[in-house]
Amino acid sequence: MPAKAANPLDRMFHPESIAIVGASATNLEGSWVRRLINFGYTGQIYPINPKATEIDGLKAYPSVRDIPGPVDYAIFNIPARLTPQIMADCVAKGVRYVHVFAAGFSEIGTEEGKQTEVRLKQIAKEGGLRVLGPNCMGIYCPASGMTFNPDFPKEKGKVAFVSQSGAESMRLVFLAQDLGIYFSKVISYGNAIDLDAHDFLEYLSGDDETEVIACYIEGLHQGPRFLSAIKRCLQRKPVIVLKAGLTESGAGAAASHTASLAGSKAVWDAFFKQTGAIPASTMDEVADIVQAIQRMVAPKGRRVAIVGRGGGIGVIAADICERAGLKVPPFHPETQKKLLEIIPEAGAGVRNPVETTLGMGGAVDFYRRGLPIVDADPATDVILVHMAIDVYGGHTPDLPQRVTDAADALCEKAKTLRKPLAAALFTGGHADTIMAVVAAREKLTKASIPVFTGVESASRAISKFASYSLAHPQ
Amino acid sequence: MPAKAANPLDRMFHPESIAIVGASATNLEGSWVRRLINFGYTGQIYPINPKATEIDGLKAYPSVRDIPGPVDYAIFNIPARLTPQIMADCVAKGVRYVHVFAAGFSEIGTEEGKQTEVRLKQIAKEGGLRVLGPNCMGIYCPASGMTFNPDFPKEKGKVAFVSQSGAESMRLVFLAQDLGIYFSKVISYGNAIDLDAHDFLEYLSGDDETEVIACYIEGLHQGPRFLSAIKRCLQRKPVIVLKAGLTESGAGAAASHTASLAGSKAVWDAFFKQTGAIPASTMDEVADIVQAIQRMVAPKGRRVAIVGRGGGIGVIAADICERAGLKVPPFHPETQKKLLEIIPEAGAGVRNPVETTLGMGGAVDFYRRGLPIVDADPATDVILVHMAIDVYGGHTPDLPQRVTDAADALCEKAKTLRKPLAAALFTGGHADTIMAVVAAREKLTKASIPVFTGVESASRAISKFASYSLAHPQ
Asked: In this complex, do B167 and A248 lie within 8 Å of one another by their Cβ atoms?
């Protein structure tokens, strides 16, 4: 027996049976039934379709009421106007959780849409049934074989994402996949007539499968409960919050998208200050911060050692770091002296930023001999390697090989470093180079080195992770 | 005869003869001689090497003094300590311009380096010879076949770049090449013991081959002359200035890189305010702003119409635009009404941002039927299309084709639009998609649609171009 009581939402993420209301008998490709089967859901699937007896090899039922066994979870893939009746059927059947995928409720702004939503809510509440949605993608949980997108990865991970937007939930999963980051649970919760962001956050705060939580919010229905849920999560794990609609333009868009009152910037500034939640402003930044958290040792300070080639590039990188809230101080004199011994050329900087030695093998050689020196420097806390090898090679045939060699050398050396390490790897626009960069990125992320598209995104993520880790020492 | 007097620097960019001092007789690959021959320089090349009689099929001379004909331009590819003597030879020979490629002067901080630089400067000044450098890459001018990098494109363009950093000059040329943008002249000027940023800017202000000027500066030797040169340029054409070293970290790095006093942020803020020069903070941003200037109709205001898929993505995009100094106001009611007619689905926004219709062909269909409606909207000035089609497709086999179809449809429709148009095209991390995105980017840029990596970079560039164009109405 587990020591702690199971959270009732556990069953929602691991249902033993799922009814699909509005299961298509003709369009199997892309159907919810096919999606669950293909994704590896092993529980009972009940297709509901009054005109079919069998769908995709499974017995179909005219109504939820006709299902012989118990039903944990039902997905409503039907027009909005039909949902109250089906909800009543689900109550009668004793269904525990309903995901209303359908749109066409309060978010479209019509009187009919609003009234349907009110009725739906009332039926569920009176029947003691919990509702996810309406107007949402629902649940992605690789461990239980649940997904709303057939192309999502089946790999399990330790990141949870709670999203008011369905599109953002898809965007983050794919962005993260490209970086080798996977999820425990993703919840797109839509209009939230019942289960809301704070319910999922409270659940995730105690979920052992989740180490990092990210959240996309346009507006809140219950501010105080959200605040307390976020605080509870932050006692145990980092939480990243992308609050969209903080500008006038964004607030207008949010009102149109989810009928949300976006809330004032001052209120949200206070929220971040009070809770210590990590703020993000784009989905790419969310993925970057997750990478930093999952792959870097917690920084003990904000002082960055920059390693790369190109004096001017180093100056710009230093400016970018400071604008992101970091510092690029000079290395300790002893460090500079040691670096000078391995970089004999005139003009190459050793102060910080330090330049990798010139020539084709410069980066590789420096990673091997120079990184340990930088790692031992007492004046800096984090190492940021910008692999701007393209600058010196342009579109030469040997560039892909050089990118590969540099990645191999960095992966090898990274194991021996004690400081947190991050890599900025510029993709470029040339086909051969891009392929090499994609392969190098995969190598680096597999070696647990976070890879960012540039110094700008890297420094933002490092700075935000540093703020979190300095406020939450292990 | 030309109506205006030729600028004396014209000859430096179009020399009739070039002497290479320190021409290698053994390492031909990668040599300055081979570089000029391969790049198409058609003037006379004189290799100088006391130990060779012929290099790469050209007669070699022991000294500049031994060259039979006149010499317009000499490149010093020799150690710093040898440069004063060779400079004296050049004065004796009557060489007009010398590019001192060598490093090892004041920038390394040694007494010897500083003294060599002083002597070099004195000899050149007394001899009436103009010097480019030392410690710099020199000139890239596709029209005359001059280059310092063998992999630079031979295509001529209308952009000039004046750079205190050699690495940055390479980075911008390659970044721009990936976007289909080419150069009239690129000058990496290094320590500037004689010819300095203001000399090149004054020249470029009157250069008919140059329509846009960009500039990378760490520190100035003659502030007032720089200021007046920038003002003169801005009377005729846009000038983008990347002033590096404006933070404490960056200023420290600049001191180490080019021994520059970076100058205070307040002074540079005043500079930008007074001149109207377009500020940039990264090289990617310079390339983005150049794209906006070269490819967009001048915006008549700051109000952006956002077109794409995904409600939450639209909210974030609106926030990003406003943070970049733009606005995303609601469309005129008439526009919304017309859009609703072609987007019948529940939940798709028509207020602004407008969502392209769902499904595989959604983007293509919207570009054809919806863009003309957005183009006619009186409440917005610029159209920003974010082609986040990957969000809805993930890593599906048909995504590359969809990216291609969307790009084709946008290219076709773009010709008919009157408003300035920009595209944000997210690269993604999946090999097949990336290849399709690279191909789509090429199509779009060839159709003169600026392509940015995301809404963030797009909105920054649009905002800065709008500031310039509103202050400089045509």
From this structure: no
**Which CATH number characterizes residue B389's domain?**
3.40.50.261
Same domain? For A84 and A145 the reply is no
The number of domains in chain A is: 3
Q: Point out which residues pair with B98 in neighbouring strands.
A: B74, B131
Q: B122: Cβ–Cβ under 8 A, 6 or more apart, which residues?
A: none
Look up the domain containing B115 and give its range. 10-132
CB contact under 8 A, B429 and A441: yes
0.90 exceeded by the pTM?
Answer: yes
Q: Any CB–CB contact under 8 A between A256 and chain B?
A: yes
- pLDDT for res A104: 87
Residue of A nearest to B149 (CA): A394
Q: Does B151 touch chain A (CB under 8 A)?
A: yes
Q: What is the pLDDT of residue B2?
A: 46
Which amino acid would we find at residue B260?
A: S
B99, B114, B132 — which closes off a domain? Answer: B132
Q: Is residue A3 included in any domain, yes or no?
A: no
Higher pLDDT, B142 or B262: B142
B264 to chain A, closest Cα gap in Å: 13
Q: pLDDT digits over A306-355, tens only? A: 999 888 899 999 999 999 999 999 999 999 999 988 886 656 788 999 98
In a 10 Å sphere around its CB, with 0-12 CB exposed, 13-18 middle and 19+ buried, how is residue A431 labelled?
middle
Nearest Cβ partner for B282 among A113, A390, A456: A456
Position B393 scores a pLDDT of: 59
Tell me, what's the pLDDT at B361? 63
Among B242, B257, B310, the residue with its CB nearest the CB of A311 is B257
Q: Are strands B58-59 and B54-55 parallel, antiparallel or unpaired?
A: antiparallel
**B429 and B309 share a domain?**
yes
Out of B87, B111, B132, a domain closes at B132
ipTM value of the model? 0.93
A84 upstream amide cis, omega within 30 of 0: no
